[in-house]
Amino acid sequence: MPDYCNRLPAGHSSALPTVTNQIGYKLYATEGTAAMIQAAGLTVTMITKKLNEGHPNVVDVIANGTVNAVINTVTGGRIPLRDGFQIRRTAAERRIPCFTSLDTARAAVQALLNGTQNYNIQPVPAYRNNTRKSQ
Fold first, then answer.
1. Is residue 6 part of a domain?
2. How far apart are CA 44 and CA 104, in angstroms?
3. Does residue 52 sit within a domain?
4. What DSSP element (H or E) covers 28?
5. Residue 7 has pLDDT above 60, yes or no
């Protein structure tokens, strides 16, 4: 089961990649994140994040179905924002979950750890109604 981890903020804990790796996902990461993951003693396949600097790049591994999920945290600057847009768009077009928040990615990994693969998506009012009924 492949996974893709785009970039974690500097100094961020390697707990998320560690847990993801332990449950059997293969990690793909861009340069900086790959170095952090390797420093934690984990195996990672490095891919370039710069879309104009060779192949395979991050969009290639998303587009060809190599990965099952994407973590793409938003950063400043024009080119990173444009590349981030392409990354998120490609994931959305391929119906691959794309997490832009590490908290959300952690929650998804926690759900995988709990072994629950059945879930129900409802409109927000339905959740509100279910909460009121259970009180």
1. no
2. 22
3. yes
4. strand 27-29
5. no
CATH number at residue 55: 3.40.50.1380
Q: Determine the structural domain holding residue 94 and report its residue range.
A: 15-134
Q: What is the mean pLDDT of residues 99-104?
A: 86
The pLDDT assigned to 134 comes to 58
Residues 6+ apart with CB under 8 A from 54: 48
Residue 3: per-residue pLDDT: 46
How far is Cα 30 from Cα 119, in angstroms, rounded to an integer?
31
**Cβ pair 113, 104 in contact under 8 A:** no
Rounded Cα distance, 50 and 54, in Å: 8
The count of structural domains within the chain is 1
In whole angstroms, what is the distance from residue 133 CA to residue 135 CA?
A: 6
- The pTM assigned to this predicted structure is 0.68
